[in-house]
Amino acid sequence: MLSDIRSGRIAAPEFLQGLIDTLTQRGRAVLGIKPDRHVGEDRDLELLGEALLSRRGEASGVAIAQSLLAAFEAAAEPQRLKFLSSLADRFGPDRRAIELAIAAYQRKEGGNGSKLEALHAAAEPRRQELIRRLNLAPGGTASLVRMREVLLSLLREHPELQAVDDDFVHLFSSWFNRGFLVLRPIDWTTSANILEKIIRYEAVHAIQDWDDLRNRLEPPDRRCYAFFHPQLVDEPLIFVEVALTREIPGAIGPLLDKSREAIAAREATTAVFYSISNTQKGLAGVSFGNFLIKQVVQDLARELPNLKTFVTLSPVPGFAGWVRRELKTEASAAIDDDTRRAMAAIEEGGDIAQAKDAITALAAYYFLKAKLPSGKPVDPVARFHLGNGARLERLNFLGDASAKGMKQSYGLMVNYLYALEHIEANHEAFAEAGTVVASDNVKKALRAKLSSRDLVPSPHTNSQRKISS
To answer: Malonyl-CoA decarboxylase C-terminal domain spans which residues (predicted)?
Structure first.
């Protein structure tokens, strides 16, 4: 077989997969696990976990890991919850080992370096090593991502699982760090398998059909890029859609119009990031977007030196909900009598154009004044882009006139500007002091009578979920 690999008759990945399969089969034989046995039959997930941690052999370990992951995916929700709960307690830190390590460290006999390392090792939850070993199974990484998706769906009703989720995030942050990610362009010639996933995963502006997708990928003034991981070869982790234009756009409709006239890439001066979509729910909280945008900016600037401006055209998903909550608050610092009347007219079916000034002023207040208890902006998309070093550049009234856009933001969209020479300074200002770096036009939209009044954080701000697109 090795000679076949050297001669090119067998690809290296096929050889490695065959080797893993052979190890797994031998491990099953050692353990007495029949390949055709129903994965959920008389299988205790906790006992499989203990067996996996106790094994030293590679073959038996891979076999047990594969069996545990298969059994978990086949299990009903009560069994899944039972196993995840066991990760929280049974597979937590060994209390006795911690006590002994603390006692050894406190005796201060000889050097404490090795004793401190022993204390650190004892404090690590056993579940971390269990998850590492599960990752060795064929397809283990993808299975663990799906396992965490299940965990997240249970977390609200079972907060005792939070420590388990923290460990997943800790490990995933290492396994999915930027050094392992591969940036790949997506175009109309990309495999149908991946293109179908782009359609399915698009989370900002739904792709209606294959013609719609083609309109976003094939023209010379369109680009799409995605991050991939070596263990998830055909699964984009996050992708961004880009329009090349001659100016900063204020509305999404013209960008997505199938009848629009495309321009040559060399004629464009502006790159517009109009949709960023995370694809794996099980990787929530593991940030890819900041790396993705910065990498794409660098690649585009190198490919097309004529590009001078890099901006987003972003949704404001929480704006309408925030406005409605503030309208119910009599003492709201964001709402005066004129604004209240204008917004009430909209709710009663009035012409939204009559409320342009009110919506624009409220939007400026929303971005510049409305804060979470942490001091960061209420808007999750703003937290993402400002945290990446962008500047809030422009508020676009009726930027998204679709039903979804009107429902979530009264049609409002915004541009965030990525000025390469200011990204680091903007990031530091936001990270250190929560400063919202904004253009003069946005600041002017904030009415003078509101600019000196701060919104007192209310309980509902705690419920805002962080997203990264």
So the answer is: 179-418
